[in-house]
Amino acid sequence: MRRFFLIIVAILVLVLAFIPLFRQQNPARQQESGNKITIVYDNKALSGFKGSWGFAALVKFKNYTILFDTGSDGEILLSNMNKLGIDPKSIQYIFLSHIHGDHTGGLWAILKENSNVTVFLPSIFPDGFKEKVRSFGAKVVEIYEPKEILEDIYTTGVMFPVGEQALILKTSKGLVVVVGCSHPGIVKIVERAENITGENAYLVVGGFHLFGAPEREIRKIGTSLKRLGVQKIMPCHCTGSKAEDIFAEEFGTDYIECGTGKTISW
Ligand SMILES: [Zn+2]
Ligand SMILES: [Zn+2]
């Protein structure tokens, strides 16, 4: 009887000693660290990188590696990625915002390096385009409606004109919205992102498409974004230098200058 009792005690001690091993240490905090967006293609570039008309960004979120758009020239895209130490084979997903060549031109060069990817594209893309993607062996997921495409990652769904989708990350600080050219309007995109998720936007990154827009309109957009709760912005690509200057003034230290080679984390 006494021996039986000792065995029970020994088992209890062992179980208690191993409990901490099974308990995950602060998983939320662990997942948030390492989340970042790196600009791999933009009109502007940090020294050592190639600047070219177009946009692409590498999104690292949770355990996902997503290439958002692909710029216009595959060689330039691969060269910039190489400089940043990004292996094309590490890309799991490619998210194409819209059909324009300055966002899709680099796709084929990436697929040549790594066809083991899933490509999220607007369903309104021509069949020939989708077929070409599949011919590399890549998987095509057609998007039309807003939806959660990966855990805590959403698409706005296709918005018009042009037929463009934006990528939404649900982070602990709020939404991070990545936009291609914002043809539907940056404010409309952010509003939609908030409606879909029920959360406020925190950071908006990408092309705001405000070339030639009058100052009054640009200031109004800045005010609207702030009203929507946007705290930080990183306007890239087709935003236009005048709009960039105005946003820099309006957002102060929460304005982040874009350019190939730049990284933003939260
Ligand atoms: Zn465009
Ligand atoms: Zn564009």
Automatic annotation (TrEMBL):
Classify the source by domain of life. Archaea
Pfam families assigned to the protein according to its UniProt record, in alphabetical order: Lactamase_B (PF00753)
InterPro entries recorded:
DHPS-like_MBL-fold, Metallo-B-lactamas, Metallo-beta-lactamase_dom, RibonucZ/Hydroxyglut_hydro
* Annotated source species: Pyrococcus kukulkanii
Domain Metallo-beta-lactamase: residue ranges: 56-180
Its protein name is MBL fold metallo-hydrolase
Q: Gene3D superfamilies annotated for this entry?
A: Ribonuclease Z/Hydroxyacylglutathione hydrolase-like (3.60.15.10)
